């Protein structure tokens, strides 16, 4: 590993093992109305080429458009259309809602007919990715699964907690101080314990599918050694499982940046590392 000045960035070597469619716009509008929060598809502002590229960005819980703007601009300036949305409390509290929502996201992704797809998921968004992977394992969606696997060229995960870190992630998303975060975390943990045999089955199934992800695209993991929401030990378990399947796994690790704030504290290291990864694999 290579360490540099604070905020410290640690690098680990690789482990080997446009155009906005009118139909898509209507679909997104109906999806936003149905689920009660924003989901947007924005055309690229960068140079166009023969290939149509799509970046799918899932923000952390409570993320607004202004929070995601730096990430959306990064992709848009490089020729990607950008499909973006964020995790909502209902996705965790009512797992069927998250399945329905991710089915809509999957349909929008495929129906937009891109040549290449890059996925970039933040924090509890990893749970939504797990839900999408569950959908793709449905025998009735075998063709969609094959198409999705062919389209996705890179997958990026920023500080994804495992199932045991969901409550802490929700508490942190409140951004109202330590007392409120701790209170919310306790309430969510109590809820998750109460529904462990109902909704909890969905949470664990999402985690299982995320651990056993069969999307073969190279992955980049961005996280911090001082993040209690997404501990490096949990992330390392998943990375090793993916590498054991023969997939390319890379990471950028900071020593002391807060949860999902690596780009804010070290934009050069974050976006520079992201660009190198995409240039190598997409």
Automatic annotation (TrEMBL):
Species lineage: Eukaryota, Sar, Stramenopiles, Ochrophyta, Bacillariophyta
Q: Name one Pfam family in it.
A: DUF829
InterPro entries referenced in this protein's UniProt entry, alphabetically: AB_hydrolase_fold, DUF829_TMEM53
Coiled-coil residue windows: none
**Any one GO molecular function term:** serine hydrolase activity
PANTHER family reported for this sequence: LD15586P
Q: What is this protein called?
A: Uncharacterized protein
């Amino acid at each position: 590993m290579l360490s540099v000045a604070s905020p410290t960035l640690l690098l680990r070597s690789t482990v080997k093992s446009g155009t906005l469619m009118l139909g898509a716009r209507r679909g997104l509008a109906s999806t936003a109305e149905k689920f009660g929060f924003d989901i947007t598809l924005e055309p690229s502002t960068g140079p166009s080429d023969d290939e149509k590229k799509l970046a799918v960005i899932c923000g952390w819980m409570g993320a607004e458009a202004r929070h995601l703007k730096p990430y959306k601009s990064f992709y848009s300036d490089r020729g990607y259309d950008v499909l973006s949305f964020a995790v909502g409390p209902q996705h965790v509290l009512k797992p069927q809602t998250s399945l329905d929502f991710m089915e809509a996201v999957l349909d929008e992704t495929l129906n937009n007919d891109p040549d290449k797809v890059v996925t970039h998921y933040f924090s509890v968004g990893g749970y939504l990715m797990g839900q999408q992977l569950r959908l793709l394992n449905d025998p009735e969606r075998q063709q969609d699964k094959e198409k999705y696997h062919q389209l996705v060229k890179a997958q990026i995960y920023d500080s994804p907690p495992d199932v045991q870190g969901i409550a802490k992630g929700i508490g942190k998303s409140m951004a109202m101080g330590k007392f409120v975060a701790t209170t919310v975390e306790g309430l969510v943990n109590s809820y998750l314990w109460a529904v462990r045999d109902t909704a909890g089955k969905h949470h664990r199934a999402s985690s299982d599918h995320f651990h056993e992800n069969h999307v073969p695209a190279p992955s980049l993991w961005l996280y911090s050694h001082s993040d209690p929401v997404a501990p490096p030990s949990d992330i390392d378990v998943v990375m090793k499982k993916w590498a054991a399947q023969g997939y390319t796994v890379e990471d950028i690790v900071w020593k002391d940046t807060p949860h999902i704030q690596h780009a804010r504290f070290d934009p050069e290291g974050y976006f520079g590392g992201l660009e190198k990864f995409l240039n190598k694999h997409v």
